[in-house]
Design brief:
Blueprint lengths: L4 E4 L3 H13 L5 E4 L22 H4 L4 H8 L2 E3 L6 E3 L4 E4 L2 E4 L2 E4 L3 E3 L18 H12 L3 E5 L3 H10 L4 E6 L11 H10 L4 E4 L3 E6 L4 E5 L4 E4 L1 E4 L3 E3 L13 E3 L10 E3 L4 E3 L7 H15 L13 E3 L6 E5 L7 E7 L2 E8 L2 E8 L14
Helix pairs in contact: 1-7
Length: 371
């Protein structure tokens, strides 16, 4: 009997790969091992589901049993992979050994939480999967004052979302929202649109301690905040627990074919570092999964990325961007009207990136971006 393709992880990367592979190869056995329940859900929805009063179950699009039946694969939920024997081509899940012909690590990333002192540091909420969303919703439902740590993409979306129902304070060590994504003028407009949110920049959370009601939070600038919940959205770090024996940097090092340093072993999604790049967005993960499916089905195909658009889900001030929008030597050309703002980033007289806001749509600019 042919050994199976084994995929560890049932997020967007794992399931997109399984679907794409099944379209090309209907006979090779496929096994997906996942530590959680194996539900398929739109992960970007996590950061703005609370504002829409959505329970975790409402986010689920398909359960593991339905996916297994649809694709004629095996999905093993609640399965913890404990080791991988690359020489023997075996995956160990406790006492169970699963052989593989090809192995794909699609284990994702975990939230980065900076070192914070205090007896309540372990109560910090993170938001990167369905189980964390359940805890997040349960805590917010009994909270009124909420602290969000992080003013990047996810932290901004979370603060924007929950400010519809709660008193929100956002803290970031930087000087403004989306500092690494957009020019300062866009951050200023977004600050104005998110006026109900109290913002503290240039400082960090030093410690969190339990109080009679809620938490007592001390910032590095000495300011004291009293809140009922603390959410950390300070970024993600690739999961490397199963990467022993593989070349790694920030993530699992792969080439354009998603190949790791071990034969017949690949990495995909948030855990993969593709020739020095970590791209934790849906579109590059989808493109990578489709290319890898072709390779695994017998037609090697490298992944190719054009300019990748990103949408910031802040309905009071929608933002789209693509290309190079942060870094030195950018010459910005900005136009603004009642319908929003367009910021064009040039380097050496070439258009290399754009940011649009409001009702303006920048997707038509994608073909014009210099590679």
């Amino acid at each position: 009997m042919k050994k199976p393709l084994v995929i560890i992880g049932s997020g967007h990367a794992g399931y997109t790969l399984a679907r794409a592979f099944r379209q090309l190869d209907t006979s090779t056995p496929v096994i997906i091992l996942t530590q959680d329940g194996g539900e398929q859900y739109p992960k970007p929805q996590l950061s703005h589901g609370f504002g829409q009063q959505m329970a975790a179950e409402q986010l689920v699009q398909q359960h593991a049993t339905a996916i297994a039946a649809e694709l004629k694969i095996m999905v093993r939920p609640n399965t913890l992979v404990t080791a991988i024997d690359f020489d023997a081509k075996l995956v160990h899940a406790g006492a169970v050994q699963i052989p593989y012909s090809d192995l794909v690590l699609a284990v994702g990333a975990e939230p980065f939480v900076p070192a914070i002192r205090g007896d309540a540091a372990q109560d910090i909420l993170t938001l990167n999967n369905l189980e964390q969303y359940r805890r997040y919703v349960a805590q917010l439902e009994r909270s009124e004052r909420v602290l969000v740590i992080g003013g990047g993409l996810i932290g901004t979306e979370i603060a924007h979302d929950i400010a519809r129902h709660k008193q929100v304070t956002l803290v970031d060590i930087g000087s403004r929202l989306l500092e690494r994504l957009v020019p300062e003028v866009v951050s200023q407009r977004l600050h104005r649109a998110m006026a109900p949110v109290t913002m503290r920049f240039g400082t960090a959370v030093d410690r969190i301690d339990r109080a009679a009601t809620g938490y007592h939070v001390k910032l590095s600038n000495g300011e004291i905040l009293n809140v009922d919940a603390v959410i950390c959205a300070a970024g993600l770090k690739p999961r490397l627990e199963l990467a022993g024996g593989l070349a790694t940097a920030r993530g699992i090092s792969v080439d354009r074919y998603m190949r790791t340093s071990q034969p017949n072993v690949y990495a995909l999604g948030d855990c993969a570092e593709i020739e020095g790049q970590i791209l934790p967005y849906l579109q590059p993960i989808t493109l990578s999964a489709r290319a890898l499916a072709s390779t695994l089905a017998g037609t090697p195909q490298p992944v190719r990325f054009g300019p990748l658009p990103v949408a910031v889900k802040t309905p009071h001030y929608p933002i789209q961007l693509a290309g190079v929008t942060h870094g030195p030597a950018l010459d910005w050309q900005i136009s603004e009207g009642d319908d929003g703002l367009t910021a064009l980033a040039h380097r050496d007289s070439k258009l290399v990136g754009y940011v649009t806001t409001g009702s303006r749509n920048g997707f038509s600019l994608l073909p014009s971006l210099a590679g």
